[in-house]
Design a protein that fits this description.
seven-stranded mixed beta sheet; 15 helices; alpha+beta; globular; Nucleotidyltransferase, domain 5
Length: 491
């Protein structure tokens, strides 16, 4: 059947992976790209640098393969937006990243004007600068991007697809489009009323196509051989849900990446909106079948490890965080709330900022490292409890992935806090696997969801060990620390 390549265009780098029909990774290539922080709360990427990283990783990976490539799939950081010229293919401004907070004031204005119920009902989202719609509006009103027929706008999946196909295809899928605050998730189509409200020209937006299905073919100069079908687009968190084989309603996963995202498959019908919780399109397959998901969004988990490395110099590489945190038995009363770009589920506070509390003279770099690891588990508990309360259905198990999931300490802490089993698969690149599986399904590499589900293999399972009362006690202290971070920057 051949190899399927997944392009994983994440927040800090691009990874291209080759997956065979047994679900085994046959090779990969990775490139980081630059993070730009022009002002406090602003985060930007150079879209040309992202495309260069895609092309470089594809070229390096394809140079190692001795089998034909059956399809290419794309997964991506979701809410980050790019504006470019259709005629030149060049970006018109740096990409505004999902973490960016510059449109918080505009979201406040829209909420004060009474538009939140419309946004909640149509999109399943909340009014928050996390999402793409107000970012696009900012590019047009403040960023100097000219409106008109030459303007193309899209999330990173759309930008990568445009370049892979030599500008022939301007498209996205419902999993990404549902993160823009512009998509009616019931109709899975752009909403003219929301676009007019936010000031976004619908003509600049990409066509919404199924998550799995042939979109176009690669062209010369993209890093991969020309003529390969590009057959899936999927947002990174929905890709991980698919890669974790969470195909049945009620199945849940969490990805520990730059941020953390807890998703629960809720089936083919979106549930009624609930305060503080997100409803999103998980995927739409080529046969028209659709799955929706409830999502808890945590903005900073792995990014806090990068902060320890790059901002404070406490560690030299991210791999040091696990052993350093495990070298002490607790955080010595220290709590780190990494609200560097605000707080997501369940708080939705764009004005929250990071705090470190409880420091005494006895606190060491190891305690600080452990506090960062513990903050990941606490934030996931906050999101899961909110999801359970609002859905009426507590989760009974959690599948996990992402870079930090290699830490046994973290997963044990997570099981202790959630009081449910936490399972790590053998293949932890589940975001890329999801994109590969979706592309391979479209091209006949795999014949069914059941065939894909059979590829999932357990690496390790962690069950609760800490006394429940003690777990609740330390979580209560964590919530006190969160209170200190709330609305810090509202002045």
């Amino acid at each position: 059947m051949g190899i399927v390549i997944a392009i994983d265009a994440g927040t800090t780098g691009v990874r291209s992976l080759a997956v065979d029909e047994r679900g085994q990774i046959r090779g990969w290539s990775y490139r980081e790209f630059t993070q730009h922080f022009p002002r406090p709360g602003w985060v930007e990427h150079d879209a040309t640098e992202i495309w260069d990283a895609v092309r470089a990783t594809l070229g390096e990976l394809c140079g190692t393969l001795d089998e034909p490539v059956a399809a290419v799939g794309i997964t991506n950081q979701r809410e980050t937006v790019v504006a470019w010229s259709r005629s030149t293919g060049r970006p018109l401004h740096r990409a505004i990243v999902w973490q960016d907070r510059r449109t918080a004031g505009r979201c406040d204005e829209l909420a004060a004007a009474g538009h939140l119920p419309l946004v909640r009902e149509r999109t399943g989202l909340v009014l928050d600068p996390y999402f793409s719609g107000t970012k696009v509006a900012w590019l047009l009103t403040e960023g100097g991007v000219p409106a008109g027929p030459d303007l193309a706008v899209g999330t990173i999946d759309t930008w990568v697809l445009w370049n892979l196909t030599g500008g022939a295809v301007h498209a996205t899928d419902p999993s990404n489009a549902s993160r823009t605050m512009l998509l009616d998730i019931h109709a899975r189509a752009w909403d003219d009323e929301l676009a007019a409200l936010l000031g976004v020209p619908v003509g600049a937006l990409p066509e919404v196509r199924p998550t799995s299905g042939r979109l176009g073919v690669t062209v010369d100069g993209c890093g991969a051989p020309a003529g390969i079908p590009v057959s899936s687009l999927v947002g990174d968190q929905q890709g991980a849900l698919f890669g974790q084989a969470c195909f049945a309603p009620g199945m849940s996963k969490n990805t520990y990446g730059t941020g953390s995202f807890v998703l629960t498959n809720v089936g083919p019908v979106p549930p009624p909106v609930a305060d503080g919780m997100l409803t999103t399109v998980a995927w739409e397959l080529a046969d028209g079948s659709v799955a929706y998901a409830l999502e808890g969004s945590i903005f900073v988990t792995g990014a806090a490890v990068q902060w320890l490395r790059d901002g404070l110099g406490i560690i030299e590489s991210s791999a040091e965080i696990g052993p350093l945190a495990a070298s002490v038995t607790d955080s010595n009363g220290t709590f780190v709330v990494p609200a560097f770009t605000g707080l997501g589920t369940p708080w939705w506070d764009p004005y929250a900022r990071g705090v470190v509390v409880g420091i005494t003279r006895g606190v060491t770099r190891a305690h600080l490292a452990r506090a960062v690891v513990e903050s990941m588990a606490y934030q996931v508990r906050d999101a899961v409890e909110a999801m359970a309360e609002m859905s009426g259905t507590p989760i009974t198990a959690l599948r996990v992935d992402g870079g930090a999931s290699v830490m046994d300490l973290l997963l044990q802490l997570q099981a202790d806090q959630l009081r449910v089993p936490v399972s790590r698969p053998v293949m932890q690149e589940t975001t890329a696997l999801g994109a590969a599986y979706l592309a391979g399904l479209a091209e006949g590499v795999w014949g069914s969801l059941e065939e894909v589900a059979a590829l999932w293999q357990l690496d390790a399972e962690f069950t609760p060990e800490l006394d429940a009362a003690l777990a609740d006690l330390v979580h209560g202290e964590w919530r006190r620390a969160v209170d200190r971070s709330r609305r810090w920057a509202d002045a």
